[in-house]
Write a structure and sequence with these properties.
Chain A is mainly alpha-helical. Chain A is 70% helix and 0% strand. The radius of gyration of chain B is 27 Å and the shape is elongated. Classes of the chains: A mainly alpha (191), B alpha+beta (322).
């Protein structure tokens, strides 16, 4: 059946289930890609796509057929987009993740065709941290995750700055070694 | 703003450096939700990546939303009812064989429920139609239509009952019992409400209060009875039935309603949570809305009331201030 988008929206509004299938087939992948590009998490992309389409169906009687499928999706997903994007921007580990993905790319080759999931990255990082000594882990977390400088950490833990620097280096080396399995080529991360 | 656009294009496309990310963080922090929303809308409008190849060709499953027609929903219920029925039948047969005598297969109940913001139509086995409003539940048993036609309702529904003078059609709500013989009528029996209403359009119904069963009223067309849920007192009114059946036409009508009740209707109708804070006005509201988005309704309410509102994640926060 060849129907215009407006006709399809009318039918969707009336509860024609096949139109729901149609809009899902056409736009769910795009929404998934968009959310992933926005927050680098496959899990959140999947969740948001599910939630948005469920909401579209449940609120189908209030669809405005004069607008487009695409704008309907945005209306429903808008606040989720804002929230997850802000969440990522505020996550202290996201910077490291970006640095990591940056280091994996060759200068002129875009990252578009490779997928580095932020949640995967965090998981591997947690696993890698298990290889650190408690002291190294503590110092690493204070420096990388909480954002304290070596001087502040030294003062806080009653150590000399030199010792703190050494511990950070040792921790980074260990992490690099165990994260090596994540990507075939990388230079340096955690600058 | 321009810098933000450039950085976002890199972030979502070719990739960012650490330094650029810091700039993007700063840039986005200074944007209000409204501006950020507008920027994201631009990006979404121009976005066209549809291939899932980079994710290893994953497939996105269609969400379970019940298939869209009530027949499908009812079929699902019948299927699960049948699954229960078979072992029960087996037990019942066993009992009958052992102990002799007649037995009646245990009655299975079918329930159709709508969530807030959802509406549904149910076709009963006798051909009667029930239009369910938001947040309502209709129940009937598998014995429906045998000797009589009893159903249970909580919430709101509009009934079109097939004529059958031999099999009485009755609707049981938490506080009221309605007996009909082939009619069109509306029942509003929401649990959160102070009262239950029965509005008759065609035919004849008899209404009896559960709290005081001696109180019965026979309704004629274009009459409605309102029962106070606490006292069980029944009051009879004439009505043109426009207000009572407006919900069927996608219209929201408010007649001299308190703000709290308006908010509750909006929550039910749109299926969204609305929180109210501050010094709520006690002014009553009368108005009519047709197929509007909830934000349009709120904007119009702001012409009568002095409040501000925020939308967050689909929830609405109204503030009257001090």
């Amino acid at each position: 059946m060849v129907l215009s988008e407006k006709e399809r929206l009318h039918r969707l509004r009336a509860g024609v289930y096949s139109e729901f299938c149609f809009i899902h087939e056409k736009y769910a992948p795009m929404l998934y890609n968009f959310v992933f590009d926005l927050c680098r998490s496959k899990m959140q992309a999947e969740e948001i796509v599910q939630d948005v389409f469920i909401k579209i169906w449940l609120n189908r009687s209030r669809i405005d057929p004069d607008r487009s499928f695409k704008s309907l999706i945005f209306t429903i997903a808008r606040n989720r987009f804002i929230d997850i994007f802000r969440q990522r921007m505020r996550d202290p580990l996201f910077g490291d993740y970006i640095g990591f993905t940056e280091s994996l790319d060759l200068p002129d080759e875009p990252v578009i065709d490779r997928v580095y999931d932020f949640e995967d990255f965090n998981r591997r990082l947690s696993e890698a941290k298990a290889a650190l000594t408690p002291r190294q882990r503590e110092i690493f977390e204070l420096n990388k995750e909480q954002g304290y400088s070596a001087a502040e950490i030294a003062a806080q833990l009653g150590l000399s700055e030199a010792v703190v620097y050494n511990q950070i280096s040792a921790a980074l080396k260990k992490l690099r070694d165990s994260m090596l399995v994540y990507g075939p080529l990388f230079v340096i991360f955690f600058m | 703003m321009e810098n933000f656009k450039k950085l976002m294009a890199r972030y979502m496309g070719s990739g960012l450096t650490r330094k650029e990310l810091d700039q993007l963080k700063e840039s986005s922090d200074s944007l209000s939700d409204e501006s950020l929303g507008a920027e994201l809308e631009d990006i979404w409008n121009g976005y066209d990546r549809s291939s899932l190849d980079r994710f290893g060709g994953i497939r996105l499953a269609l969400p379970e939303v019940g298939g869209g027609s009530n027949t499908r929903r009812l079929l699902r219920l019948y299927r699960s009812a049948a699954a229960i029925l078979i072992p029960l039948l087996a037990v019942a047969t066993f009992m009958a064989v052992r102990y002799g005598g007649k037995y009646l297969a245990p009655e299975q109940t079918v329930a159709v429920a709508t969530a807030s913001g959802e509406r549904s139509t149910v076709m009963l086995p006798d051909g009667s139609k029930v239009y369910l409003n938001n947040g309502s539940t209709l129940e009937y048993g598998s014995h429906f239509g045998r000797k009589d036609r009893p159903v249970k309702l909580s919430g709101e529904a509009y009934f079109e009952v097939s004529k059958d003078e031999e099999r009485r059609f009755t609707v049981q709500t938490p506080g009221l019992k309605v007996v009909v013989t082939g009619t069109s009528f509306n029942i509003s029996a929401y649990e959160y409400s102070d009262c239950t209403e029965v509005s008759l359009l065609e035919g004849q119904v008899k209404v009896a209060s559960e709290i005081d069963p001696d109180r019965t009223i026979t309704l004629k067309p274009n009459q409605k009875v309102v029962m106070n849920n606490t006292t069980g007192l029944l009051a009879l009114y004439d009505s043109d039935m426009v207000y009572e059946t407006a919900w069927m036409q996608d219209e929201l009508i408010f007649r001299s309603m308190s703000f709290a009740d308006v908010v509750r209707r909006l929550e039910m109708y749109y299926g969204q949570t609305v929180e109210v804070s501050g010094n709520v006005s006690d002014k009553k509201f009368t108005g009519r809305f047709m197929e509007e988005r909830i934000t349009d309704v709120l904007k119009m309410l702001q012409e009568h009331y002095n409040f501000t509102y925020k939308v967050r994640n689909g929830d609405i926060f109204i503030d009257f201030g001090e």
